[in-house]
């Protein structure tokens, strides 16, 4: 049984939400909106955020609504194979994953993190694939492998922990 998501132990990793890739993602508006809520909530709550970009020379940079933040370029689908990535993920981290494609880079990264002994939370309403059946199959496989499947609001409200949190109203206003 996994504990509640602790903002002090969390790392948000947003995978490959890039200009040339997102137009072909099914239900992309919801994926982007939820990824943006997660990034903005993480920044307000002091949770580190890391973006990845798959082959940025070919797929372009991160979408404008998330650009301007640190991004790690990669060629491997599993970012844990990129030199230096795992060094940035504390051993006890709750790694929150969002992005695309769910059945390729998100899946392989989650499997790599699980193999490295990290706790993985995949945000189902903030991940996407070109075809919804690929996303759904990836989420089922990840759950069976030990990843925790969560939603954007689950993450944000677990980070807050209480309606008395100083950022509560601002975060609630953003997601409602």
From TrEMBL:
- Which InterPro entries did the record assign? Isochorismatase-like_dom, Isochorismatase-like_sf, Isochorismatase_domain
Put simply, this protein is called Nicotinamidase-related amidase
The record places domain Isochorismatase-like at: 10-153
> Gene3D superfamilies recorded for this chain?
Isochorismatase-like
SUPFAM superfamilies per record: Isochorismatase-like hydrolases (SSF52499)
């Amino acid at each position: 049984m996994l504990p509640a998501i602790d903002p002090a132990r969390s790392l948000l990793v947003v995978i490959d939400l890039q200009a040339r890739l997102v137009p072909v993602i099914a239900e992309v508006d919801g994926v982007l909106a939820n990824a943006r809520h997660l990034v903005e909530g993480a920044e307000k709550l002091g949770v580190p955020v890391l973006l990845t970009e798959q082959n940025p020379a070919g797929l372009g940079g991160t979408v404008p609504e998330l650009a301007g933040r640190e991004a790690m370029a990669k060629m491997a689908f599993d970012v844990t194979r990129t030199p230096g990535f795992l060094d940035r993920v504390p051993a006890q981290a709750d790694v929150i994953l969002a992005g695309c494609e769910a059945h390729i880079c998100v899946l392989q990264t989650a499997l790599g993190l699980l193999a490295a002994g990290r706790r993985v939370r995949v945000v189902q309403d903030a991940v996407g694939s070109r075809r919804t059946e690929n996303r759904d199959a990836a989420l089922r496989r990840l759950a069976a492998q030990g990843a925790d499947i969560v939603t954007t609001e689950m993450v944000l409200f677990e980070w807050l922990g209480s309606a008395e949190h100083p950022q509560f109203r601002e975060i609630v206003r953003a997601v409602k």
